[in-house]
Write a structure and sequence with these properties.
Length: 441
């Protein structure tokens, strides 16, 4: 999340001289020394660790230290890093040219596989990032309904387009306000924000504004405020409310797509959205994302229809084969059962270690995603996530980094397990966490 955090005082005790030198050099040319803000360690303090290699479940810093990785490049690395079959597919495709700016069969191959996993959807458009996917879906929803407003949920992240960089206005005001300078207030006003897991709030907002709401966007399993599963009935209610008011229901499955199970959360929860955003896993670690839906909606996108959207590198052959090879592995019998089992083992083990030491810790897991929060009570929305002890998370993060475990550098981020992780990695992580928790202040 883009949530600004206090200045934490915690830093690693391990010295990483090459990382420090890398960061100092990067500060001279890259904005803040990074190309995406969370990498700067703002939420946990200390100096970002620079990486020079990643392989399977592990990642290596420029000082030569290896870590067991639970970030997985923020979700795409579901097979672990540099899976030999994906590397081979990418190498072969690269030899034939990086990008054609013309149709190629790799696009249709990946399209057919993705659509076969998402019943009810019959068209796809590939783009290059999740941000682009969410931004394009909003345009399509507005065009298809002839309405302007959208509803999103506090603590859900849909990329950094203007319409989505919005927070709830104060008090009774339902209009959104920009949460970044540079976002046009008129654009922000068209976005309304409700608390996650609170269908009644959506119902009330719709009763007042329903005839102007184009779409309700939701992460069906929230993964950008830790990991917050939907409560029973929440997604079902959203479906009902949208149908009642003629608004479109959009599942942002950029994170959950092919991560929580084959297809996405819609396959397991049984609630079908009108439109779906995908990203992360579908590009296999290369820049690819997509939006999908029924032909009746998707054929309104150009060139089939009038809703404009385009991309120079969209559907480029390298990203398409990386996604295709990755999904072919995910499709194998038992893949998600094993991945979900490993992730659950980690969540349960961490919770037990914490309980044994009197540390209040909440853990959740859905498929290959996990979340932890230092909190007395379960996290059900963004206020709960904010009230968790983020200073303690920062301390825990550094204690784990020093023990060789690479966790997300913010308590607002989900953890990702890959199929390259084994029970031994999980069990060593739980042991290290137990020892790290002994040292927490
Ligand atoms: C990561 C993410 C995005 C944005 O994707 P980018 O590729 O980083 O632009 C959008 N929605 C969700 C749910 C995400 O997790």
């Amino acid at each position: 999340m883009t949530e600004s955090t206090r200045e934490p005082s915690t830093t690693s005790t391990t010295s990483r001289p090459r990382s420090e030198a890398s960061h100092r050099r990067a500060l001279g040319s890259l904005v803040g020394g990074v190309n995406s803000p969370v990498r700067a360690f703002g939420a946990v303090g200390g100096i970002p660790v620079a990486v020079d290699r990643a392989e399977g479940p592990r990642i290596r810093d420029v000082d030569g230290n290896w870590y067991v990785d639970y970030v997985g490049s923020w979700g795409p690395a579901i097979l672990g890093h540099a899976h030999p079959d994906v590397v081979a597919a990418v190498r072969a495709a690269a030899g034939d040219g990086f990008t054609f700016g013309a149709p190629c069969d790799h696009e249709t191959d990946l399209a057919e596989l993705i659509l076969s996993a998402l019943p009810g959807n019959d068209r796809i458009r590939f783009v290059s990032s999740g941000t682009e996917s969410c931004m394009s879906v909003i345009r399509l929803a507005r065009a298809a309904t002839g309405r302007e407003r959208v509803i999103k949920f506090a603590g859900n992240y849909h990329g950094h387009s203007d319409a989505m960089l919005v927070e709830a206005g104060s008090g009774a005001v339902t209009h959104g306000v920009p949460n970044s300078p540079g976002v046009v207030p008129d654009v922000a006003r068209a976005t309304m924000t409700c608390p996650f897991n609170d269908a009644d709030s959506v119902r009330r907002t719709m009763e007042r504004n329903g005839d102007s709401v184009a779409a309700v966007l939701v992460e069906p399993v929230a993964g950008n405020m830790g990991l917050v599963p939907p409560e029973p009935g929440f997604l079902e209610s959203l479906r009902e409310i949208c149908d009642e008011h003629g608004s479109l229901l959009v599942f942002d499955e950029v994170m959950t797509g092919f991560r929580v199970g084959w297809g996405g959360h819609q396959r397991t929860c049984g609630v079908l959205p009108d439109l779906t955003c995908l990203g992360k896993v579908v590009g296999g670690g290369l820049p690819a994302a997509a939006y999908v839906g029924p032909a009746s909606l998707m054929d309104q996108v150009s060139p089939a229809g009038p809703v404009y959207q385009a991309g120079t590198l969209s559907g480029n052959p390298i990203a398409m084969v990386a996604g295709l090879e990755t999904l072919r592995h995910c499709e194998r019998e038992g893949f998600y059962e094993r991945l979900g089992g490993l992730t659950r083992r980690l969540a349960v083990g961490l919770r037990k270690s914490a309980m044994d030491r009197g540390v209040p810790l909440q853990t959740t897991s859905v498929g290959g995603m996990m979340g932890i929060a230092f909190s007395e009570r379960p996290i059900r929305d963004f206020d709960d996530a904010r009230n968790a002890d983020h200073e303690r998370y920062a301390e825990f993060f550094h204690a784990m980094l020093d023990r060789g475990f690479w966790l997300p550098p913010s308590g607002y981020e989900a953890w990702f397990v890959s199929s390259a992780h084994g029970e031994d990695h999980i069990d060593r992580t739980i042991e290290a966490a137990a020892s790290a928790m002994e040292d927490l202040s």
